[in-house]
Amino acid sequence: MAASGDQTLLIVDDDKSFSQRLARAMEKRGFLTETAESVSEANAKVDASAPAFAVVDLRLEDGNGLDVVEAIHSRRPEARAVILTGYGNIATAVTAVKLGAIDYLSKPADADDIHAALTQRPHDKAEPPENPMSADRVRWEHIQRVYELCDRNVSETARRLNMHRRTLQRILAKRAPR
């Protein structure tokens, strides 16, 4: 894993139950974990002692997880950070990598996926997904993402998607496609 044998891992996510479950799972895999729920709390922990590994949520209540990745990378350039997000797009993935992240995973990601991302060799290629999402599922995920970005405002979401409000309401009322 880390060249120096340092197994410190900082998990930054405002979903406390998720971060606690992930911390327990990563401790079973040999990491010494710490958690933080905000950018300010994470930056304070990084200033005290920059971790060898980090798992950082992109959207936090008090800011952007990319700021945490940047702080970690400036204090410890060899640190391996993974960004987790439910709001993924190419622009933020590119920015995350430029700031020092080694991978960008969409939620929900399990501990095995996160462990694999943290411990992969620098030149290993990612495996293609075994079960890629269907086109209907990708469309549904995009609609859900825009809906959340609009603070669950149906009218604003419909306007941004160039869709009739009632059509959007029918889509939102249905279950997610497989």
UniProtKB/TrEMBL annotation:
GO terms for cellular component: cytosol; protein-DNA complex. GO terms for biological process: regulation of DNA-templated transcription. Gene3D superfamilies: 3.40.50.2300, Homeodomain-like (1.10.10.60). The modification 4-aspartylphosphate is found at D57. GO terms for molecular function: phosphorelay response regulator activity; transcription cis-regulatory region binding. Residues 8-122 form the Response regulatory domain. PANTHER family: REGULATOR OF RPOS (PTHR48111), TWO-COMPONENT RESPONSE REGULATOR ORR33 (PTHR48111:SF1). This is Two-component system, response regulator RegA. It comes from Faunimonas pinastri. The lineage of its organism: Bacteria, Pseudomonadati, Pseudomonadota, Alphaproteobacteria, Hyphomicrobiales.
